Structures are given as C-alpha cells and as structure tokens.
Amino acid sequence: MALDGARGARDEESREKKKKKKRRKKEEEEEGEEEEEGAEAGGSPSAATMGDGDAGGRGLAGARPRGTERPSAVHGRLVLAFAVCIVALLAVTALAVLLSLRFDGCGPGAPGGAPGLPARGGNASLPGPARRDPQAGGEASTPGAPAARPPSDAERERERERERGPEREPEREHPWTHLRLPGHLKPLHYNLMLTAFMDNFTFSGEVNVEIACTNRTRYVVLHASRVAVDKVQLAEDRAAGAVPVAGFFLYPQTQVLVVVLNRSLDAHRNYNLKVVYSALIENELLGFFRSSYVLHGERRFLGVTQFSPTHARKAFPCFDEPIYKATFKISIKHQATYLSLSNMPVETSVFEEDGWVTDHFSQTPLMSTYYLAWAICNFTYRETTTKSGVAVRLYARPDAIRRGSGDYALHITKRLIEFYEDYFKVPYSLPKLDLLAVPKHPYAAMENWGLSIFVEQRILLDPSVSSISYLLDVTMVIVHEICHQWFGDLVTPVWWEDVWLKEGFAHYFEFVGTDYLYPGWNMEKQRFLTDVLHEVMLLDGLASSHPVSQEVLQATDIDRVFDWIAYKKGAALIRMLANFMGHSVFQRGLQDYLTIHKYGNAARNDLWNTLSEALKRNGKFVNIQEVMDQWTLQMGYPVITILGNLTAENRIIITQQHFIYDISAKTKALQLQNNSYLWQIPLTIVVGNRSHVSSEAIIWVSNKSEHHRITLDKGSWLLGNINQTGYFRVNYDLRNWRLLIDQLIRNHQVLSVSNRAGLIDDAFSLARAGYLPQHIPLEIIRYLSEEKDFLPWHAASRALYPLDKLLDRMEKYNVFNEYILKQVATTYIKLGWPKNNFNGSLVQASYQHEELRREVIMLACSFGNKHCHQQASTLISDWISSNRNRIPLNVRDIVYCTGVSLLDEDVWEFIWMKFHSTTAVSEKKILLEALTCSDDRNLLNRLLNLSLNSEVVLDQDAIDVIIHVARNPHGRDLAWKFFRDKWKILNTRYGEALFMNSKLISGVTEFLNTEGELKELKNFMKTYDGVAAASFLRAVETVEANVRWKALYQDELFQWLGKALRH
Ligand SMILES: [Zn+2]
Q1: Per residue in 211-226, pLDDT tens?
Q2: Which listed residue, 519, 547, 964, 1054, has the most CB atoms within 10 A of its CB?
C-alpha cells in the first residue's frame, strides 16, 4: 500500500509566503516599489488520499431491494430497516435479560465443552432465535437483524461471579472478545457469491468457507463487521451432515461473528460454513465502497474495495488476519451495463434475460484476505503483455483512457514486472495484472494481487501538463505496488507488527525500480537520502517515536503501525543492510527468501535467517538477527561522535548515544531514562585532505565509547557514514567540522554528492537538537554557490524549511531571509528559468538539471528574490490576458503560488475558476494548492470553509488544503482554529483511514511555536482525551521542542546572521 506523500511530505510541498506585511510596508516606504514579496512556490501534490465523508449510513441494513429506486428512497428504507434492527435488538436484549437467569443456571463442566473454552451447558447456549429453529443448519432470525446479541459486560461479570468463581479469567471464556481469532479453526477455501445492486448501493452475499478444525471448539468465530447476517449453516465436510447451530451473533467490539454450536467441532476434521448476508456499498473509503465521476455531464458510479488492513470483514464474513491464507473462488452478479473485476480473470460469464450477468472468476492461489479485491464499474481499458505472457491492463474512466492518460503507467508496469521477475528470480504468480484508476481511494494505491487500485492522481499522467515531480510520483507509486506483488502478496508478513517487512521493501524498491526505468537518476544512491532518510530521521528523533517492529495488542494498534516509521525507517534499515551485506549477496538472499516462503507467511526472523545463510555461503559469518534486532526492536537511532584524542596521536574516540531533538523530552520519558540504548553500528569512515581521500574502512561500533587507531595527518579531516548508507547521524569535534567546511568551500568535489547532502542534513539536525553551535550549518551552506548537483541543494532546502517555519513570524526574520537569498542568488542567475516543456526523452536526459533549477527557483521565489517575483507575475499575467498557459510545466506550482500571493484577488478567482474547469488531475491539484498561498485572510478562510464540501474539494484534498494554509504564516492561526472548530467532522471523516488523521494533526501543528499555541494544543487535547492519542503526543513534543529551541537558540542564531551579513 502506498501512503500519500511517499516521497516525503516536505519535499515538494508548497512554500508559502514568508514576509510579513510589516516588512512589506517598510520596503515599500524605502524603495517605493510595488509589492513583490514573500511568495513561495507551491509544490506538487503529495497526498493521494481521499474519502467521501460520512454521508452513508453505517447501520446494519437488511433491505436488499433490487430495483431502480432512487438512492435517496432506498436510503430511507435502509434507515427504516436500521430502526427495525434497533427495535429488534432491544427486544432481544429484554428477552435475554429475562432468560439470563436460566442461562446463568447452567452449571460448569457439562459435557461437550471444548478445551480452553467455557464448559457451558451442552444445549443452553445463548438466548434468542436459535431456540426457535433448532433444526439442521440452524437457520435463524429475521433477515436483517442480528440473530442474537452478545452478553453485556455486566452479564459477563455476573456470570463470572456466580458460575466460575473469581479466580477464573473471564476473557478466556469468551473467545470473541480477543483481538486475535482463537486459532481453533483455519479456513482452507472460500466460495463467495456476490450480487451488487448499483441502483441502490446494496449488495447481498453468500460465502461458503471450508474450514479445518485444529482444536476442539464449540464456537465458530470469524470476522464480520457492518453486515446483516441472514442465515448461518454448518455442515461436516465428509459426512455432509449438518451441525446444529444453536445461535449466532455479531460482536461489534471485536468485529466478529460468533456461531454457537450445540456440540463441539472435532479436531482434524473439516467443516463447511455457509453465511448468507447483506450490506451497503457505502459512500466512504473502506470495505466495499462506492464513488463516482462525471462523464458527458452524467454522474456515473462505481464500487471498489479497500480491505487492508482489516476491512475485508465489512464485505464478507472471513478470517481476516494475514496468517489465514486460503484459496478464493469469487462470483459477482451485476447489471450487464457494468463490468466486474477481481484478482483473477473471469472464467465464465452467464447472462440472464433480465439484463443481469454473473461473472465467475478463476480460483486464486493461497492468499490473505487483505489483498483480495473486486470492482464494479463502467471503465474502459488499454492492455499490453509482458515477455513472460502476463496480461497487463489499465482500467480508467473512458475519457482518460481515450486521452491516453493511462499509457505511461501501463508501459512502465510491463517493464517493471519484467524487472522484478529477473531481480527476484520468481515469476509473477497470476495470469494477469489489472491496474484500476479510481477517483476516490483512501491511499495513493493498494497492491491487491492481480487487481491493484490507484487513486487517479497517482497513476494517470497527461504528458502535456505534467511536471517531472509529478512523473516521479506516479512512477514511484507504481514501482511500489508492483513490488508488493512479491513482497506482501506472494510472501505475506505473519502479523501486522512486521508490516514494515512488506512496506519497507516496497518503499526501498521504489528507488531501485526507478533506477531501472531511468538509469542515471541515481535514486537509490542519492534521492533516497532526502526523501526517505532525512525525512524519517526527523520523526524518529522524537522521544514519542516507536520501534519499527511494534507489538500490536489492540485493534487500534493495527492502524498505528502503518506510518512513516514502518515505511521509511523500514526502507532505510533495508538499505543499510543491503550495503553492509553487499548488493549481490543481498539480492541472492531475497531470492531465497521469496522462494522458500512463496504462497505463505514469514516473520522478520525468517528473513534474517535466510540473509545470514546467504552471507555464510559467501564465507561471511554475521548474525544478522542479532544486529538487526537492535535496529528494529529499539526506537530511534544513534548519533556517533568522533573525537580526535588530544593526548594520543592517531587515536580517536568514538561514542554513541540515542539522538533526541529535545533533550528535555528525554528526561521526561521514563522508558528513555531507564534504558540505555545501544546499537551495533556499521560505521564506514574515510580520512581526507584537500586533494585526496583514503579508501573506506568499516568499524563496527557496539559500545558506548570505543578507542580506535587511525592515521591522521595534520590538517586531515575525518568523515563517517560514507554516502549515508547507515541509519544514524555523525558528529565531530569543532576542529574537524571546520576542516570539513573548509574542504567544501575550497573543493567540494573531493566529497561525493551524497556525502555533501549528508553533511548538510546532519549539521542542521545536530544544531537543532543543540549538539552543535547554530552557525555551523549556516556556514556549511555557504559553499552552495559553487554546487552544481541537485541533491545537496535539495538537502539544504529541506533542512532550511523547518528552520524557516520557526522564524517566519519573528521580528528579525529578515536577517535570516537575506542570508538565504545571498546564498541562492548566484546559482539562480546562472541557471535562469526553463524555456520549454519536456517530452519523454528530454525528461530522461535532463532530470538532474531541471530538478536543480526548479529547487533554486523555489528557494529564490519563496525567500523573495525580486527577479523571481517579477518573472512569476509576468507569466501569470500573460496567462490571464492571453488565456494561454505558457508557464513551463516544471515550475507551474511555484509560479501559481507566487502569483496568488503577490497579485490581487482577481488572480485568486482566476486560479479558482481554472481549478474547476481543468480535467487533468495533476493540474487540478497544484491549482488548489496555489489557492492556499494567498495572504488575504478572508480568502484563506473562504477556502478552508469550502474545503469540507465534497462536491467542491475531494476529501483527500481537503486535508492538503488545511495543511497548506497552516504552512502559510498568514494562515497558520486560521488553519489551527479551523482544525479545532471542525475536529469532530474531520475525525469522523478521516479517523478510520490509516494515516489521514495523523497527517492532518502533524500538518496543522508542527510549526506552532509559541507558548500560547502550546497551551492551546494541550487544552484542546484535554477536551478530546484519547482520540488519536499517539499523533497528539507527537504534536505536543514537536511544539515543545519548537518553543524550547526558540528560547535557547534564536538569539545566538540572529546574532551570528547579523554579523555574517555585515562582513
Ligand atoms: Zn505498500
């Protein structure tokens, strides 16, 4: 699954305006010029999440009309049905309370109790409909209503007291109350028959699950959520005899369906469970949901699924944990005006006279529920075939297919399947792979095996309006999902605590796979640093971070594990591993791992063992598990400090300590105080002087402090973590920092591009945490006027960004601004503005150069370079007057944002109009983001209010609107207030979608930096205690660190800047 902003939120994001009106006035007075300050460039989109809010009801609905009623009428009926359900539930509850006396009276130890389960009376069981229908198969209940209800907490408590005695653990008696399924039963095969009613957005289903019983049990517990169960039957497989069902009920707390039997199922026997049910195709983001698009003025609907991590249960009752791999045979009945898709190809289609058709799909191989998928739509497609015969199709809206917007994705997908088949030496497992571009999806994409689903913005590409950044975003999301067809789909993590095993690999391969498509871009060696390593080290340097492998003890933990730590730290650790193992040994290890575990599950130790074996075959003996456990089971990362020893020549002292941005947070967090974190660190090191660099040596650092011998001439410097392949920071004594700065200024090319970028990021981060004087990083970036490579500029730009946000509302901000402009000016003039747009071959050749030029223009415009502002204004004015957009693609976002911030309300209205009229998804996104760049607070407020209207702004884009307004110094307080005022709505809309809430919370709060704002944040959290707790804890730590940094270091920084500018 690709989350939004996969290349790092900070990377392409808008840089909103900086300067205050105060300053503007001053300049106007002084220079008498027109206003031309402060704009910043808007970046390319980083979000790909969406949602359609909470319009659809969530109740259990028994109604299953199959007609052409209008959805509103049907919804009315569903609401009615829901009300009926509630009444039924109340009635059953009342009945159960009455019956509970009898229920309680059943003594323990009755025959038939399964081991480890309550030894309840053989036939007493639960109250309710089961009594009414004791016949074979145990059909029960009125359709649409739960057949019985679970005992309440109070009842369970009473039961425990009266029957079992206080020493018995009540939870064990109720296998349905646990996070994990009990494990007595294992699904082998599912036959799933669905009928989808797209006219009223309901569906009905019948699932037949072949189950192996591994331990005697009297309960069948499997997942089901928000479905109305009509009928449950159980039969013994061989004897074909029915097993009487005493009753069944849904237990919403753990989202399970519990079938209570009159007798126990026997171990080592197979059974067949049949469940007939119905549910809504909801207007939301998860499970089997609907969305829509407009074609020729007419709204068309489609139904798609998003099951990962725990939403298959909303579409059919199933054993919804990754370990329960089974085969699936799916059939979908729908109106013949639609087509249906699923993981496997259609085997046969049966047409009926009434205009309906049933598609029967081929049986899948063994797989988990979370990457099962289906879709019902009116899309068209284009197709291609790989060398090995895999049919690849791209499905999208007919107008997008006609325009060829899917052709790029289709083309690279074919090449990528070929790449992975060759790299992994394991063929793609299914006969086909469909890519589906949908208008609404909670994530950038989801890797469903054979039917991967992408949000349009991450797969459709119109070459005439797309920038290189957009092309790169699209490319990397596709590389990611195709990698998952192996890492995730073919070999699946055992449990969610190791989700980083699949996500870390897919994220790492985004860079390796893109290098295959675009040789020479050096993604894995270079871009990985700024987009992954630097980004995640920022997060993982908080005391509120967590280990990459974290225990999943409760349902909400499952959502928590899908975060940047899993994706980016996972990828960074894998890259470190590949580097110290050597890439070819690493590759062979992966080939073994996939071959051994294909169609199965694997845990991290399976990977470590396979990789250790691969090393052993190469004559190297490293216990990879021992090394990697320290990196995966401990949170955070170390900072290595290398000190020259003044008393003994050629001796250095190397120390390691846990790097935390805010040292006071460390003293507050108990688990950090009591733990002395240590890592086994593969420290690579070189010694250099003005003309020469030694060859690389590796030192494994495993103690807190170590002495090492190194030959070091006078005037030679040391550099650690060569090319930043390791997941740690390196600090030096000031003498060494001076030598390194001197080297960069005299001849920076002695150091590699990655080392230059690494030094910049380390220096800024070390200074921010107080390990280094504030001026050291600012001195380092002085050499940039000579820098011709993109990566160091990119690293500097990203490191300056949070610093800028800390300072942008301060009186003395101008000093900082002026200093940065001074560093940028020479390169800005040298590079100039792009003239032409690109075609495909130009993109390949000029990526580095164009990205560098874009970065420098972004810095220049955002820090207020006058020429940059004039250029942006001219380009926008030309567009408005000629109605022809001649703005070069690669800088459009910068120009739009700068234009909106500098020019008047008419420009804002013009961009607003263009946002509505454009059909290209990439263009739509940057137009919307440009609107957040205004410094007119009325316009910003208007935009914020419009952002929650799903008709105007897609749900996933609304989050970006709010975050971008928060990044604008003129809008920061507006967004923060809007967020607090609308929190209930926002949390309802995004709370359940992984990642969206946390993105919103961090986006709105990360640049708050006053005592007042910190207080507001803490007060706000008190009101909403417990909701999104982890995200809010991170937010508080970040804001506290911001406040603390300002108190300790801002004077030091401004003093130095003042002096530096005078010289
Ligand atoms: Zn993924």
Answers
A1: 999 999 999 999 999 9
A2: 964
